[in-house]
Amino acid sequence: MTNILFVIIASFLLSPKVYLPINSRNRHDISEIHITEIGQFGLMRKTRPNVPKHYHTGIDIERPSSNYVSEPIYPIASGVVISKRTDGPYANLIIEHTIKGRKVWSLYEHIAGVKVDVDDNVNPNTPIARFMSRDELNKYGWQFNHFHLEILKVKPLRIKPFPENPQRFYNSYSLICYSHDDLDKYYYDPLVFLTDNF
């Protein structure tokens, strides 16, 4: 009986908990992710109108194929959707996970075709959204031909939903990371986190 229990516990602890959030040959191979030229974690982002200079808090993942109709985006792990924003190019989802006994939050931004709602349970094999289509990119700009992935150490900021986004309950710290200390306080480098938790 003890041996059976040990095998069950060992298989649970050793089984992969985290997956790449894209279609790929092997969703446990970090080399399958391609990041945009300016999409690396921790890059300094220049000041823009109404947006101060800040550090890039995630990675910008390139579309993994030539599918401009339904290229899916998946959650990195099982979890619960806690926030949903669906307005234009800044549409995003935030999912709360428990991975290896600790709470973490993943954010997926610049997404389209959102398939889930707040309080939905999700798993890494069910698409939650998709990359933008050609029509959407023509409308919003081809600079959004990727999606932005963040992995947070700290629960996102609670906000009051607006009528146009009634399920947007949280916001990340992405525009208030002005130092490396801020970045380290709030975020994991997604590539490191994924690699360490496959």
Task: Walk me through this protein's architecture.
The two termini are 29 Å apart. The model has no long low-confidence stretch (mean pLDDT 93). With 198 residues, the chain is of the alpha+beta class. Helix content is 18%, strand content 25%. It contains 4 helices and 13 strands. The strands form 4 sheets. Strands 3, 5, 6, 7, 8, 10 and 13 form a 7-stranded antiparallel sheet that branches. It has a two-stranded antiparallel sheet with strand order 1-2. Strands 4-9 form a two-stranded antiparallel sheet.
Average pLDDT confidence is: 93
Class of secondary structure makeup: alpha+beta
β content, as a range? 25-35%
Tally of contiguous helical segments: 4
CATH fold node name: Glucose Permease (Domain IIA)
Question: Roughly how much helix do the residues carry, as a percent range?
Answer: 10-25%
CATH homologous superfamily designation: Glucose Permease (Domain IIA)
CATH class category name: Mainly Beta
Number of strands: 13
Biggest pleated sheet: 7 strands, antiparallel
